[in-house]
Amino acid sequence: MARRVSMPAADDLFRPTAPKQAERREEPQPEQAKPARRSRPSGRVRHDEKMTVYITSEELLAVEQARLALRSAHGLAVDRGRLVREALAMTLADFDAHGEDSALVRRLAEE
Q1: Distances (CA, A) of 51 to 10, 37, 91
Q2: Residue ranges of the chain with pLDDT lower than 70?
Q3: What is d(CA 80, CA 40) in angstroms, rounded to the nearest whole number?
Q4: I need a surface site. Which of 55, 58, 78, 92 has the fewest CB within 10 A?
Q5: Domain of life of the organism in this record (predicted)?
Q6: Rounded-to-integer distance, Cα 50 and Cα 70, Å
Q7: Is 30 helix (H, G, I), strand (E, B) or coil?
């Protein structure tokens, strides 16, 4: 006699991953509406948002070489996402601190 395998229900497969409305924090008041930039990236946590960025093969090669150099020379095993989040956090912190004198503004103005 054939044995039937128990499969999960659709509700189990497609359950919401975000907290319910009652569990969410209250929305910020208008005076708190300015987004606060973090000085450190989020690191190894679950990320709820996704952003796709297209880069050239040379840029990807540079990211991979930096990742491998961090691993071999400094003993830091980081993935590409963490490396990019760290670089982004450093760039945004510099922009917050220096405004129009930041490296970000200078480089974007060169284009």
Answers
A1: 27, 17, 17
A2: 1, 18-44
A3: 16
A4: 58
A5: Bacteria
A6: 24
A7: helix
